[in-house]
Design brief:
mainly alpha, 12 helices, single chain, Rhopdopsin 7-helix transmembrane proteins
């Protein structure tokens, strides 16, 4: 049977993203870890934790799942449990990205709007505890996916007429009560609650910033100070929050919507029918999530000036290191030659 066009697109897309997306994630991590961006340590920790989760997610999707499905015999190279393990890691990263985004926006809300709470909550120690707690909780909550995802034969056949397998949800999932309940529960954990909290905290934070900025300008009787550090800090917070929120919604909202559509569609959508519109949109949404590793770095470069400066400085330093062996050494000048001869006499 002829391969569906969406699978052909994925066959080309994932190797390309592994070549460009994985280095982009590592570069983002390196730039944030180096510092010199005028951001607090708490912000740096959150952004690095998000970048690491994105890197692991991209690594699992591109290398350990789809590339091996397209180009390697899964049954020969990987034992059957590898399917469940890869999805366990995948959903750990998914939950981590989602809830770290919520935790970061809540941290910004507290430091901007909570005058008393911020001295106890917005500390480096608390940030580290929150990040470790999110990763740990995500790892434990994602554990049941190990039993949900198994190698499933598809309608696509190889040259020998053998049906190819894809790592996907087991067909008898609805017959296993606990796993079926969990499959519906993760929709709430992954989609509904985080989305509501994200929109609520960002709306309250932006409203508070505009309200206090207007009040400060009123107290100054319209004479705005271009060197007002507080105004600059608030403007920087709005830019960073806007980047994080826009990136999250642009890359994750389509996946969230199509997941809800799959739940509400009657009769249920056959996930193994790669010609069905819902299945096609779901796979496109998965590709959009993978694309976030590259687009996030581009958004940081466009929105954060010091990130752009550090990125350019790193590119120049790397280019100089690579090209240095090929740069001919200039001969010493006449005065330098005379000095050398004087020293040797």
């Amino acid at each position: 049977m002829e391969e569906p066009w969406i699978r052909t697109v994925q066959r080309l897309f994932y190797p390309i993203m592994s070549v460009f997306g994985l280095p982009a994630s590592l570069i983002t991590i390196a730039v944030f870890c180096k510092g010199n961006l005028g951001l607090s340590k708490s912000i740096i920790y959150y952004l690095v934790a998000l970048a690491i989760a994105n890197f692991l997610l991209l690594l699992v999707i591109t290398v350990f799942r789809d590339i091996f499905f397209f180009y390697v015999d899964l049954s020969t190279w990987w034992p059957p449990p590898s399917c469940g393990i890869s999805n366990w890691i995948y959903f750990t990263c998914v939950y981590s990205v989602t809830w770290l985004t919520v935790a970061f926006t809540f941290d910004r809300y507290v430091i901007i709007c909570g005058m008393k709470l911020k001295f106890r909550y917005c500390t480096v120690k608390t940030t580290q505890q929150v990040i470790v707690g999110v990763y740990t909780a995500a790892f434990l909550i994602a554990m049941p996916t190990f039993w949900i995802y198994v190698p499933v034969p598809t309608q696509v056949q190889d040259l020998n007429g053998t049906s190819l397998e894809i790592c996907s949800i087991r067909k008898d999932l609805n017959e296993i009560f606990i796993l079926s309940i969990y499959d519906h529960f993760q929709t709430t954990v992954w989609i509904i609650i985080p989305l509501v909290l994200l929109v609520l905290t960002n709306s309250l934070t932006v409203w508070h910033i505009f309200d206090t900025t207007k009040l400060r300008q009123g107290l100054k009787k319209g004479n705005t100070d271009q060197n007002d550090l507080e105004t600059t800090r608030r403007r920087r917070s709005i830019i960073l929050l806007s980047i994080i929120t826009a990136s999250f919604l642009a890359h994750w909202l389509p996946k969230m919507i199509i997941k809800v559509v799959e739940r509400l569609t009657i009769p249920p959508v056959n996930r193994y029918d790669f010609f069905h519109p819902v299945s096609i949109v779901r796979m496109l949404a998965n590709m959009l999530i993978v694309l976030s590793s590259v687009s996030n770095m581009c958004m940081y470069a466009l929105g954060v000036e010091k990130f752009r400066q550090e990125l350019a400085r790193g590119i120049k330093a790397s280019a100089f290191t690579v090209c240095k062996p090929f740069i001919p050494l200039s001969p010493p000048s006449q005065s330098q030659s005379q000095n050398i001869s004087d020293l040797t006499q």
